[in-house]
Design brief:
Elements lengths: L1 H9 L12 E6 L4 H15 L3 E8 L12 H19 L6 E6 L9 H15 L3 E5 L4 H5 L2 H17 L7 H6 L9 E4 L8 E4 L4 H9 L18 H14 L2 E2 L2 E9 L4 H5 L3
Parallel strand pairs: 1-2, 1-4, 2-3, 4-5
Antiparallel strand pairs: 5-8, 6-8, 7-8
Helix pairs in contact: 2-3, 2-8, 3-8, 4-6, 8-9
Bound molecules: zinc ion.
Zinc ion (ZN) binds next to loops.
Length: 271
């Protein structure tokens, strides 16, 4: 038994792009972070027969400089854009769940309710892997409110999901058993935190197309909303984004920090 545990712990983490027929659960603060961080990887995961599920914390209803824009309209626009981006990546819209917190307000939600809500999702979906924004990266730690909160909340929910004494009502009333997430992949990592890079050469055009589906997140639509692209703007923006996609050893990549967990029970049952 001791030997078996040692062998299991010594195994290298599973590589994300090699997953087949698994359930993948991705949490994103806004309906575009999943595209910008991971669209290539998501496209590969969908192509490889995985059940990809996306949970979006906020409705992203604030980020517009257009004086004629309203929060209600923007939330609808962002939802439509996310569905289109996911369609391009091979993820159906009924695989997207919206928690519908207002943009920028996640940190002011009831934190106990928030972690309970996400714990419930994890216990229901019972994913083989969770993708979430990295709580350890300097960028998310200091830059943006919803990013900080989503990062920490998802991690806290992963921990709570495995212990039956956290939110025992979920087991008593809904039959949701505790669940140990086998592996986590964190995105928006700093260079020093990354320990896994997915080669997205074969799907880089899909990533660009999915990113361009978020029309309202780019100029000129941020200042004056229009639902479509002027052809010249589209080509220019796409080319600029292509130049900015990180490369490793000459290949387009998406970077992750992966871990099998932070407590002994989870480490010993890894894979
Ligand atoms: Zn974001």
């Amino acid at each position: 038994m001791v030997l078996a545990t040692t062998v299991l712990c010594a195994q290298a983490p599973e590589r994300l792009e090699r997953l087949r027929g698994k359930t993948i659960l991705l949490f994103t603060p806004h309906p575009d972070d999943d595209t910008f961080c991971c669209a290539g990887t998501l496209s590969l995961l969908a192509k490889n027969g995985n059940n990809v599920r996306i949970v979006i914390y906020t409705n992203d209803d604030k980020g517009s400089y257009d004086p004629d824009m309203t929060s209600e309209h923007l939330a609808k626009i962002r939802m439509h854009e996310e569905e289109e981006a996911c369609r391009i990546l091979g993820i159906p819209k009924d695989h997207i769940s919206w928690l519908e917190y207002h943009d920028g307000m996640l940190e002011y939600a009831n934190t106990r309710d928030l972690v309970e809500e996400v714990t419930k999702i994890i216990r229901k979906v019972r994913p083989d892997a969770v993708l979430s924004i990295d709580p350890g990266s300097e960028y998310v730690r200091w830059h943006k409110t919803d990013h900080r909160m989503a990062a920490n909340n998802t991690l806290d929910a992963i921990r709570a999901a495995e212990w039956h004494l956290y939110f025992p009502n979920q087991r008593l009333h809904e039959g949701l058993e505790p669940f140990i997430v086998p592996q986590e992949f964190y995105y928006y990592v700093t260079d020093k935190d990354a320990n896994q890079w997915v080669n997205i050469d074969s799907v880089v055009e899909k990533k660009l197309d999915a990113a361009m589906a978020h029309v309202s997140q780019w100029e000129p639509s941020i200042h004056k909303y229009r639902p479509d692209w002027d052809k010249a703007d589209l080509e220019k923006t796409k080319a600029e984004m292509r130049d900015q996609i990180p490369k490793k050893d000459g290949h387009y990549v998406e970077a992750f920090r992966t871990t099998a967990g932070f407590n002994p029970a989870r480490r010993n049952t890894f894979r």
